[in-house]
C-alpha cells in the first residue's frame, strides 16, 4: 500500500491500532461536530490562483519565536504516544529533529521530559502544560523543561475539565498497565487522575507562570478576538488558535475560521499559530495566507507514529512539506 | 451497553418498545421536517467559547415562576406514559421529584392526577390542558389540578385538531385495552376521541381560564413574535415556545429559532421556556444563552422511562445535568 | 397497504405500472434537476403558524375564472391517461366532477374530447392546446372544445420542441398500438409525431387564438416577470406558472419560486395558478399564501389513476383536501 | 446500450478502459474538489426561460479568432489519446474536422503534429504548448505547428509543476512501452520527464513566444481578473479560463465561476473561452450567456474516443450540439 497522502496514514492507523487507542486519538466531544468542522472549514476556503510567476525557487523556511524551522508545520501536543508506537514520544522527538521542526511535548507524555530530550539532543522543543491544583507539580515541570532546553511553554487554556468523548466513556479508556504519565512527580498509574487540573485558573495565573520562568509563554486554545486581546495584554509571546481537536466544547468554531478573527485582533503584536484540521499541504498554505505564522498537526502525527514510528512521522511531515511547496507553486 | 448520551436511550427505546408505541412517540407530522429541524437548528448555533475563567464553582439552579429547580431542565407534557413503562406517569413524577425539577403532567396521562400526586408528594408539577368542547370537563380538570397542588396550568395552543402523523394512521394507533386516558370525567377507552377538543378557542378563552383558577397560566405552542405579544397582553405568566415536537404543522420553524423572536418580543415581561430538539447539555446552554429561563424535554424523557422507568428517567436527567455543567465550564 | 399520503400512491404506481409508462410519467429533462427542485423549493418555504384563532369553520371553496370549485386544487393537463388506467381521461373527468374541481384535458389525451365530455357531463373542464404547424388542426380543436362546453383554453407555451427526457429516449417510448392520440383530425398512431408543433409561435399568436374563440385563454409555462407582463398585455385571462413538471428546460426555476415574481408582476390583473411539486395539502396552502388562486396537480393525479382509476384519483384529491384543511387550521 | 447523454460515454469508458488509463483521465488533484466543483458550479446556475419566441430557425455557428466553427464547442488539449483509442490524436483530428470544429492538439500527444495534420487535412487546429527548460525544444514545436497550418498557439500557464493526482501516484502511472510523447525532439519514453517544464516562466515569456511566431497566442489557465488583465496587457489574442480539469491546484474556483470575473475584466478586448465541467448542451448555453465565445471539452472527448474512436467522439459532439440547440430553443 502506497502512502500518498495523510488519509492513507489515517486508514492504516484505524486498521492496525487497538480499537481503544484509535478511539482515544480519534475522539471528539459529544457529536464530534467541531472535530469534523475543523476539516470542512478548510475545504470551504478557496484559492485565487495566480499564473506565470517564477516559482523555480521557493523558500519555505520560517522562524517561530526566533527559531528557524524547515517549513511551517510543527507537532502539536498530544498525549500518550506509546499508544501509537512503543518508543512513544522519543520517536516523535527524533522525527521532529530530523525534519528540523518544532515538537510541543505534552504533559501527558508517556516518556519523561528527560527521555525526550536525550532521544533527540538539540531539537527545537516546546513544553505543553496544564496548571494543576497542586501548583508545585506545575512549577516543578516548568523548571525541568527550562533546564532541559525546551524553548517555549505552551499553556493549554481550554481544559478546566475534560470534554465528554463518548467512545472513551464507553470503552472505559485508561492507559494499559505498562504505560504511565511519567512527567508528574508521582507518576499516575492508569491515565488521567480525574481532578488533578485546576478549574479555577484565570488570566492572572499567566503572571504566576511568568514569575517561574524566562521562557516565552504561548497560550493554546484561544478562539475569539476577546480572548486574543486578553492574551496579548497578559503578556504571552504566542497564541495557538485551537479547539483541542474538537475534543473539548463541541459546536464551537472551526479553528481556521477562528484564526481570522484572532489574527485581526492581535494585529501582529504576537505570533499566532493554529492547529486542527490540517490534512494537506494546501491547508498549511491557507492558514498562512490567513495570518498564521505556523501550523501544528495533532492526529496526523499520531497516524505517522502508528505507521512506522519516527520514520512514519517523517513520512507524514515530508508529504505535507512536498504538498505545501507544490501548492505554493501552483497558487503563484 | 453503557448509557452515555441521550441517543443511547433513543436506540434502546427503538429496540425494546412495541413498534406501535415507538412510532407514536417518534411521529412527526407529514414529512417530519419540523421534528428533525428542531434538532438540526440547535446544531447550526455555534458557541464562542471563552477561556481562563474561574469555573471551579458553578451554580446551575434556577427558579421558574418562583419555584426553585436543581437545573434548568423540566419534563414536557407528553401523553400515555404507560406505553413506555408500566407505572406510567407515576414513575415520571417520582423521577422529577428525585431530580428536583418540574414535571408538566399531560391531560392525556394514563394515570389520574390524583395518582400522580400521590406517587411523589411535594414534587413541583404543572398541569397541561386542552380546552374541550365540553367546557365543564376542562373546568373540572383545572379545579382538580389546583386542589392537588399543581403549581401552574399549561394551556396547549397548537392543537385545534391533531396533526397528521402518517405512521399512526398506518398503524391505526390506539391505546391498548388496559390503558385509559384516565383524567377525563368519563375516561375514554382506546385513545383520543376525535372531536373532543374545541377548535373555536381564541385568545379570549384565556380570560375564561383565568376566571377558573388562581394558578399561573403558561401558554404552550407559541412560535411567532405576534403571538408572543398577544400572550403577554392576555395576561399569561409564561410562554413555552413549542411546535409540539413537530407533530402538528409540518414545515414551521424550529423552536430554538422561534425562541429568539419570542424572547425579543416579550422583553422580559413573562418567563419564556422552550421545548423540542434538546438532546445534549450544550443544547440547554444554547437555549439559556438565547433567553430561555428553562427548557423542557419530551421524547428523551420517554426514552428514559422506556429504559428503566423512574430510574431511567433520572439517568437521562443526570446526563443532561452533567453535560450542561460541563458545557458551561468549557464555554467559560 | 394504507394510502395515507400522496407518496403512497407514487410508490404504488412505480410498482405496478409498466416501466415504460412509469418512466414516461416520471421523466424530467436532462438531469431532472428542475423536476426535483419543484419539490425541494416547497420544502424550503416555512410557515409562521399562528395560534388561538377560531378554526372551527373553514370555507375552502374558491372560484377560478368565475367557476366555483370545492377546493383550490385542479387537475393539470398530462397526456396519455390510458397508460395509467384503461378508461383513461374518462376516469379523470369523472373523478374531477365527483370532487367538484376543474380538469384541464390535454391535447394528447387518449380519449376524444367528445368521450371526455360524455363521461362526466356538466363537469368544469378546460382544454389544453398546442399550436400546430397545421393551424387548421388547432383551430378545429378549439372549436370542438368550445362546442363541447369546455370553459377555458390553456395554451402551453413551453414546448416549441419536446425536452430531452433520457429514459424515454432509452426506452424508445411510444404509445402501445391500441392507444392513440385521438383528438387530432388524423389520429396519430404511436405517440407524438416529431414535428407537429410549430416552433415559430410568438406572442402575436395569442391574438390569432383570441380571434377563434370567446373562451378565456390561460397561458401555461410562464416563469418570469417579463413574460408575465407580456401575457397580461396580450390579453390572457389567466397564467399557469409551470415548467412542464421539469420535463422541458432543465435547471430553470422551481415553479413555487417563479410564482412569487409572476404574482408581483401581474399585480392582480389576471388570475395566477401554479403546478409542479404539489405533494401535500400544506404545499397548496403555501402556493395560495404566495398569491396563487389555485394549484394544479400533474403526476399525483396519474398515480391516483394508476391506483384505482377514478376512485384512486378521488382518493388523491380527498387526501389533499383533508391535508389542506388541516394545515389551514394548524397555521391559523 | 443507447448513448443518450455524455455520462453514458463516461460509464462506458470507466467500464472498458484499462484502470490505469481511466484513472489518469479521471484524476483530479488532491481531494478532487475542484474537478467536481467544475460540474457542481454549472448546476448552481439557473436559467430564466422565456416563452413564445420564434425558435424555428437558430444559427449556432460562431467564429473563434476569425475561423468559423459549426457550433461553439471545441476539443480541449488533453494528453495521450492512444490510451483511449489506438489511432489516438489522429482520430480526434478526424472527428473535429468532420464536425467542423476546432481541435487543440496537446504537446503531450501520442501522435506527431505531422501525423495529426495528415490525418485530417484542412481541419481547424490550434497547438497547445508548455515552455520547456530547453527553450529550443519549445521553439522547434512552435515552428513546426505554424508550418503545418495550426492556426493558434495555446500556452498553458497553470503547470509550472504537475499537480498531485493521488491515483496516478498509487498506480505509478506511466505510458505503456509502445506509446511515446512523440512531439518532442527526443521522444520521451514512458510518459512525462519530471523536470522538463520551466517553472521560472513569467509574463515576459509571452513576448519571447510572440517573437517566434505570427500565430495568435491564446493563454490557458487564467482564473482571476488580475491575471486576465495581465494577459490582455501582454498582448494575447485569447484566454481560456481553465483549471486544467481540476488536476493542478485543488480548491481553487470552478471555471464557470471564474469566467464571470475574467469576462468582466477583459471587457471584450480579447476572446474568452472556458473549459471544465461541460457535460450538457445547456452548460454550453450557460457559458455563452456568461460571456464565453466558445467552450472546450476535455474528458468527454476522451470518453467518446474510448467508445468508438473518431465515430464515438463525433457522437459526443453531436449530442452536445443537439442539446445545445434544444436548450437555446427552450430558453427562448
Can you put this structure into words, describing what you see?
The structure is a homotetramer of 332-residue chains. Chain A has 332 residues and is α/β, with parallel strands linked by helices. Chain A has a single domain (6-44, 57-331), classed as Aldolase class I (TIM Barrel, Alpha-Beta Barrel), CATH 3.20.20. Chain A has helices at 6-16, 19-26, 33-44, 89-98, 113-119, 135-147, 166-171, 205-212, 225-233, 255-266, 281-289, 299-331; strands spanning 62-64, 67-69, 73-75, 103-105, 125-129, 153-156, 180-181, 188-189, 217-222, 238-241, 271-275, 294-297. In chain A, the strands form 3 sheets. In chain A, strands 3-12-11-10-9-6-5-4 form an 8-stranded parallel β-sheet. In chain A, helix 11 links the parallel strand 11 and strand 12. In chain A, helix 4 (89-98) runs parallel beside helix 12 (299-331) and helix 11 (281-289) crosses helix 12. The interface between A and B is medium-sized, with 35 and 24 residues.
Helices and strands of chain A, in order, run as HHHEEEHEHEHEHEEHEHEHEHEH
Per CATH, the superfamily of chain A is: Aldolase class I
Enumerate the spans of chain A where pLDDT stays under 50 for 5 or more consecutive residues. none
Integer count of domains of chain A? 1
Annotated CATH topology of chain A: TIM Barrel
Largest sheet, strands/sense/barrel of chain A: 8 strands, parallel
Query: Which pair of chains forms the biggest interface, and how many residues does each contribute?
Result: B-C, 35 and 25 residues
CATH architectural label of chain A: Alpha-Beta Barrel
Name the overall outline of chain A: globular
The helix content of chain A is 40-55%
Output the radius of gyration of chain A.
19 Å
Amino acid at each position: 500500500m502506497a502512502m500518498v497522502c495523510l488519509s492513507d496514514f489515517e486508514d492504516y492507523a484505524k486498521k492496525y491500532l487497538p480499537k481503544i487507542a484509535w478511539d482515544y486519538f480519534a475522539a471528539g466531544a459529544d457529536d464530534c461536530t467541531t472535530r469534523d468542522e475543523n476539516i470542512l472549514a478548510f475545504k470551504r476556503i478557496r484559492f485565487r490562483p495566480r499564473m506565470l510567476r517564477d516559482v523555480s525557487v521557493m523558500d519555505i523556511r520560517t522562524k517561530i519565536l526566533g527559531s528557524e524551522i524547515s517549513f511551517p508545520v510543527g507537532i502539536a501536543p498530544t498525549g500518550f504516544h506509546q499508544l501509537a508506537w512503543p518508543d512513544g514520544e522519543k520517536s516523535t522527538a527524533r522525527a521532529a529533529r530530523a525534519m528540523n521542526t518544532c515538537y510541543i511535548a505534552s504533559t501527558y507524555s508517556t516518556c519523561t521530559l528527560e527521555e525526550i530530550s536525550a532521544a533527540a539532543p538539540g531539537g527545537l522543543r516546546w513544553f505543553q502544560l496544564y496548571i494543576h491544583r497542586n501548583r508545585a507539580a506545575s512549577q516543578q515541570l516548568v523548571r525541568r523543561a527550562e533546564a532541559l532546553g525546551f524553548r517555549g511553554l505552551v499553556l493549554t487554556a481550554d481544559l478546566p475539565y475534560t470534554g465528554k468523548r463518548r467512545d472513551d466513556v464507553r470503552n472505559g479508556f485508561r492507559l494499559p498497565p505498562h504505560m504511565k504519565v511519567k512527567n508528574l512527580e508521582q507518576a499516575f498509574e492508569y491515565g488521567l487522575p480525574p481532578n488533578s487540573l485546576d478549574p479555577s485558573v484565570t488570566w492572572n495565573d499567566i503572571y504566576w507562570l511568568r514569575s517561574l520562568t524566562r521562557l516565552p509563554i504561548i497560550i493554546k486554545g484561544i478562539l475569539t478576538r476577546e480572548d486574543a486581546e486578553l492574551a496579548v495584554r497578559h503578556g504571552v509571546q504566542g497564541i495557538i488558535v485551537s479547539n483541542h481537536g474538537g475534543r473539548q466544547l463541541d459546536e464551537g468554531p472551526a479553528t481556521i475560521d477562528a484564526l481570522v478573527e484572532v489574527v485581526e485582533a492581535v494585529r501582529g503584536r504576537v505570533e499566532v499559530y493554529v492547529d486542527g484540521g490540517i490534512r494537506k499541504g494546501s491547508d498549511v498554505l491557507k492558514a498562512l495566507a490567513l495570518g498564521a505564522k505556523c501550523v501544528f498537526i495533532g492526529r496526523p502525527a499520531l497516524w505517522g507514529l502508528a505507521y512506522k514510528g519516527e520514520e512514519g512521522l517523517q513520512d507524514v511531515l515530508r508529504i505535507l512539506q512536498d504538498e505545501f511547496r507544490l501548492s505554493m507553486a501552483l497558487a503563484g
